[in-house]
Amino acid sequence: MEIEEFDYIVIGGGSGGYAAARTAREVLDRVAIIDGAEELGGLCILRGCMPSKTLIYSAEVLHLAQQGEKFGLKIPEARADLAALHQRKLETIGEFSEYRQGQLESDRFTLFRDRATFIDENTVELTDGRRLRAQNFMVATGSVASTPPILGLAEVPCWTSDEVLDLDFLPEKVIVLGGGIVACELTQFLKRVGTEVIQIQRSEHILTDFSKEASEVIEEQFRAEGIQLYTKTSLKEVSYGDEGFKVTFEHDGEVIEVTAPHLLNALGRRPNTKGLGLDKAGVELKRSGHIDCDDFQQTSNPKIWASGDVAGPHEIVHIAILQGELAARKATDRRGEAVNYDTLLGVVFTDPQIGTVGLSEKQLKERGIDYLSADYPFDDHGKSILMEAKRGYVKIFANQNGVVLGAECVGKDGGELIHSIAVGVTLKASVTDLLRVHWYHPTLSEIWSYPLEDIQEEL
What we know:
- The protein is α/β, with parallel strands linked by helices and 459 residues long.
- The chain has helices at residues 15-25, 42-47, 49-66, 82-104, 161-164, 181-193, 212-224, 317-331, 361-366, 382-386, 414-426, 431-434, 449-458, and strands at residues 3-11, 31-34, 110-112, 116-120, 123-126, 131-139, 143-145, 173-177, 196-200, 228-230, 233-241, 244-251, 254-260, 262-265, 269-271, 304-306, 345-348, 353-358, 372-377, 393-398, 404-411.
């Protein structure tokens, strides 16, 4: 059988895959992209960041309208129209997906609308039988929803985030399993558009990748909005029948049963490696299921590289792009610096939002780094008070010389506010450097000046 030859082949046309293909194409002529998904665009554009944040923002506008009296406003009625929300989401992400589709289908690349399986260390076979060979491969196939071994869960017709993001009707009641970022963002969205929500989390707190203090702020907000949140639970069984879904779990020594017409499995995602034939290519996996890569995204097969959710360690779009660009540069014998996860930026789009950058307090302690810290609450800050956004705080961590190592912001627009400190962390600025900035009054950003001043006084 004739084999088509390429310089570089990317499997997966999402953010990380496209970044790798674009970067490789700067110096190579024969670059192919293989993507067999029904729609081109990748998880972020089609089923992740863009659709979810479009819907979440609409829900925030609705929530503010419903709180009109706090602002001296008379708004007789404000409610969600799920069909209209759904249509707006489709129109919004349509612009992004069309642009990405145009990029992938341009004559700069050879696009195969198919699925690929490795048959040896440098050859893949497509579903239609064609075989392709390359000097280097990028695997950027993303992730899929996972189904943990909970009795009955795999047998019931529950939703994943894919289905929730495609809702065109208002569910009366939903049970949400999980307390990670996706679970929490969608829980609050559902509640704010008018759905009764029961959220069940196995750990003591939701959002376990963040500090206990941050998690507690979001838990307080969720309960204040009427979300029925159970934490520190043990899930026993999930079933489905004429009365809908039933979830049985243990909480505070008591066995509890809850029922609802709908169930959202938001218990996490797993790397999408099934069917790739990575074993035949000599590509090793970690215990987590992620593809094992070195600091430059190269796998155990030196011809194969990986980026994004399929590689980890952070399932974040901008990380996938950085990894894809880095891998393509190294594969084409160009310079590239490993991604610096010590300056990692993270955002949770709940309300209040959580924004983090750099080393967390937990990481600082684990590494034995001496540090100074200071925090300041939003309920004592002028702009947040007048915005009725008083829940949350900012916190900064610096070394003994005053260089800022990390920060967290839990509050109104925390995902936007964290970027000013992200610049400081990345540039290794000190608290004195950052206090030279004009922190305008009254703004939300001004709140950073207070913990910066507190640390400066300690130096």
